Amino acid sequence: MFREGAVAVLFKGESAFESVNSMVESFAKAFTAFGVECVIIDGMEAGFGDQLRKLFVSRPIAFFFSVNGIGVPVQGTAFYNDIPVPLFTYFLDRPFHTHLYVRAPIDRHLMSFPAAHNVPFCREYLRDREDIFHFPHGADPLPEAPWEERDIDILFVGSMYYNYVVERAKWRERGKETEKHLNDMLALHDADPQHPIEDCVIEVLGRENLTFDRLNDHVGHLDRYIRDRERIDMLKSVTQLTIIVAGRGCDKFPGSKTNLQYIGEQPIMAMLEVMRKSKILLNPLPGYSDSHACVFNDLSPGAA
């Protein structure tokens, strides 16, 4: 399939809690199992550019592989159009977060999104090409701890970046018309939580003369509100059981309960060890997320 001695080039970089970088290791492990030698370039290390240049002159390249856009320029093409092999980007986030990478004018750029409905959306608003796909997410299985050794009954995992009450109050600052539009979009979502949030925006604003930037602005307001509201509502609804809560900002949500024990944000390897000691994991996601790596990471240590 590839030239003799060809290697796959994967990238590490800035990653919250090292979560994405740990996935790069898992992908390299998977490719190696299929007989593809892998080289991981860490863009956070000094001299990574020299490392790449030496690699380009010493080994043929099979393909480039990016997780969630790490290693992909948001402007220009870097070296990708000079080397006639594909770049495959495996996005963990939806186009709302990753559109700058999607728009990069790179030839032979294949990409996968977490939800099937992201594919037609990207082709309509960002990149009218057939090289956009939906591959469901997965995770590298971990050794499971025996059930009797799991001393955490319920673990809640998820960061909260916004106070959803404050976030919704900001809608008024956008003017009455925009506030009404956002409320109408939210009502469509609440009536069918699995309905793509982008479609909720399109149904209210209409397709005619709707630019991606205007659409994406509304998606951002809705997504920030919905994601944290669902997590907070779940924590508020469980009052009789003790829950260990892990994640950035979780101790600052409105209406915090005394049955919640906070351990704060954790790097991914420490978090996976906490998961191995847990019996039940709670990680609410919006219905429109469809496939998401978080779900499989939660399942990989063997909890329910």
What characteristic shape results from the CA principal axes? globular
Radius of gyration over C-alpha positions, nearest whole angstrom: 21 Å
Count up the helices: 10
What is the terminal separation in angstroms? Answer: 40 Å
What is the average per-residue confidence, as pLDDT, rounded to a whole number?
88
Spatial strand order of the main sheet: 2-1-3-4-5-6
Low-confidence stretches: none
Structural class, judged by helices and strands? alpha/beta
User: What share of residues are in beta strands?
Assistant: 15-25%
Give structural notes.
This protein has 304 residues and is an alpha/beta fold. The protein has 2 domains: 7-133, Rossmann fold (3-Layer(aba) Sandwich), CATH 3.40.50; 147-299, no CATH class. Helices cover 38% and strands 16% of the residues. It has 10 helices and 10 strands. The strands form 2 sheets. Strands 2-1-3-4-5-6 form a 6-stranded parallel sheet, sandwiched between helices. The chain has a 4-stranded parallel sheet with strand order 9-8-7-10, covered by helices on one side. Helix 1 links the parallel strand 1 (7-12) and strand 2. Helix 6 packs across helix 7 and helix 7 (197-205) crosses helix 8 (212-237). The two termini are 40 Å apart.
Write the layout of secondary structure elements.
Blueprint: E1 7-12, H1 19-33, E2 37-42, H2 48-58, E3 61-67, E4 87-90, H3 95-103, E5 109-112, H4 118-125, E6 132-133, E7 152-157, H5 164-169, H6 176-191, H7 197-205, H8 212-237, E8 243-246, E9 260-264, H9 268-276, E10 278-282, H10 293-299
Helix pairs in contact: 6-7, 7-8
